[in-house]
């Protein structure tokens, strides 16, 4: 059995009853999180108009917030573009990938066209999340080192697994859909180096391609059986690695973590610790001489992390550790608007010069040490070896997201958040997705 055939055998017949409670609970939190990120996405008129221009096919699937309807592929594209706009995504930390912003738009859009139930939605989400964890395990690090983006390279396979499950493809057709998806794998990280915005298109393209690949396979289109592990397959091409045996299913969805603040995941731990030190010691920026941040060698070298502003676009600020920590040091928090308003000429960039980022081979990926050196000679410090504290429960996720209600684009944001929370909680008993989605349009 080839790798795509093994994946198809696992996920094509996946039912809600097969999902452990811990998987369902995390998927509920991921759905609430992803939809909230969509509702609070910043408006960027030029980019938004450009995306809408390539999403003009009529259909029955809603564009979130916008309220227009398109076919499933276009709706997935536009909604994925929106869902990742804050740079605040759920994450499989071990594979450097964000499942929700790719998988959820697929299931919502295609699910509306097919009239699926809430339970079917969770089954399809699980297929996407778990397929991503399986296909990327052991390869993602090498892919990232070769300057490809793991989220889009492997995310298209996750999107296809989810779409195939919504379409109820059998194992044979699902295997061909997954093989077709390898031909849509793409995405370099030059955008992080230059601060350009195509990272959002990487997510949108992967989401739409998942629907396209599943639909092609449903109509009989076939693909190479060894598209992952073959001599010219995805693993050798993108990772430069000889393939391993197919990864066994071990339910990785419960390990998904959430970014508590907007911006790159690599910067979440140091910012979280800096904000905690600021509160604990009653610090403000005027008391600080400089801040030393130590990351793993791989994370410090990730494109965009160790850049200082001013930047050409908000993307540069979203990736910059010095920028994110400078805002946190001065303001005691970080808002999405900080990226949009302060990326260019702002006094925050002078403060960011006091934030210095170093690498340490002994520090694990996603860990960090933050040392705040005060002008009176004292130093306060904290270390986080992994971001597992960001693997929030449902209640913790809801508490975080409730604070964002004022950022919803309607005056009744708090009420809509409460309704969304209730709708997600009851989704396993819902026969359709309409009640859930109607909360997210005017």
UniProtKB/TrEMBL annotation:
The record's section on InterPro entries has: MmgE/PrpD_sf, MmgE/PrpD_sf_1, MmgE/PrpD_sf_2, MmgE_PrpD, MmgE_PrpD_C, MmgE_PrpD_N
Q: Which domain of life is it from?
A: Bacteria
Q: Which residues form the MmgE/PrpD N-terminal domain?
A: 6-240
The molecular function terms of the Gene Ontology recorded here are: lyase activity
Q: Which residues form the MmgE/PrpD C-terminal domain?
A: 263-384
PANTHER family per record: 2-METHYLCITRATE DEHYDRATASE (PTHR16943:SF8), 2-METHYLCITRATE DEHYDRATASE-RELATED (PTHR16943)
To which protein family does this belong?
Answer: Belongs to the PrpD family.
The entry's protein name is Catabolic enzyme
Query: What organism is recorded for this protein?
Result: Bordetella ansorpii
């Amino acid at each position: 059995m080839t790798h795509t055939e093994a994946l198809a055998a696992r996920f094509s017949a996946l039912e809600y009853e097969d999902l452990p409670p811990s998987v369902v609970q995390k998927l509920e939190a991921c759905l609430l999180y992803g939809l909230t990120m969509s509702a609070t996405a910043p408006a960027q008129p030029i980019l938004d108009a450009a995306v809408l221009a390539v999403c003009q096919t009529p259909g029955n699937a809603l564009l979130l917030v916008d309220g227009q309807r398109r076919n499933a592929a276009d709706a997935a594209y536009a909604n994925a573009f929106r869902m990742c706009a804050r740079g605040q995504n759920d994450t499989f930390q071990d594979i450097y990938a964000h499942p929700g912003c790719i998988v959820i738009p697929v299931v919502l859009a295609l699910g509306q066209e097919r009239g699926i139930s809430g339970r079917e939605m969770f089954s399809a989400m699980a297929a996407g999340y778990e397929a991503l964890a399986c296909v990327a395990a052991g390869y993602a690090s090498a892919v990232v080192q070769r300057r490809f983006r793991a989220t889009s390279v492997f995310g298209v396979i996750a999107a296809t697994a989810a779409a195939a499950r919504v379409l109820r493809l059998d194992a044979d057709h699902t295997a061909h859909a997954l093989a077709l998806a390898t031909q849509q794998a793409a995405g370099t990280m030059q955008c992080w180096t230059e601060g350009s915005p195509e990272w959002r298109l990487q997510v949108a393209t992967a989401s739409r391609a998942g629907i396209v690949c599943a639909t092609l396979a449903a109509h009989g289109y076939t693909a190479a059986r060894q598209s992952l592990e073959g001599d010219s397959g995805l693993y050798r091409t993108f990772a430069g690695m000889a393939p391993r045996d197919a990864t066994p299913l071990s339910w990785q969805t419960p390990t998904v973590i959430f970014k508590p603040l907007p911006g790159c995941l690599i910067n979440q731990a140091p910012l979280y610790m800096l904000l905690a030190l600021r509160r604990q010691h009653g610090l403000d920026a005027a008391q600080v001489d400089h801040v030393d941040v130590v990351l793993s060698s791989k994370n410090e070298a990730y494109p965009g992390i160790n850049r200082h502003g001013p930047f050409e676009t908000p993307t540069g600020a979203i990736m910059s550790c010095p920028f994110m920590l400078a805002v946190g040091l001065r303001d005691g928090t970080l808002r999405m608007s900080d990226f949009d308003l302060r990326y260019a000429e702002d006094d925050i960039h002078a403060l960011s010069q006091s934030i210095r980022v170093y690498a340490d081979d002994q520090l694990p990926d996603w860990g960090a040490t933050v040392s705040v050196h005060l002008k009176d000679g004292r130093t306060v410090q904290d270390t986080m070896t992994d971001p597992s504290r960001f693997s929030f429960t449902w209640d913790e996720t809801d508490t975080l997201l409730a604070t964002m209600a004022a950022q919803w684009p309607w005056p009744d944001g708090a009420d809509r958040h409460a309704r969304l929370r209730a709708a997600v909680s009851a989704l396993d008993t819902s026969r359709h997705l309409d009640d859930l989605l109607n909360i997210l349009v005017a």
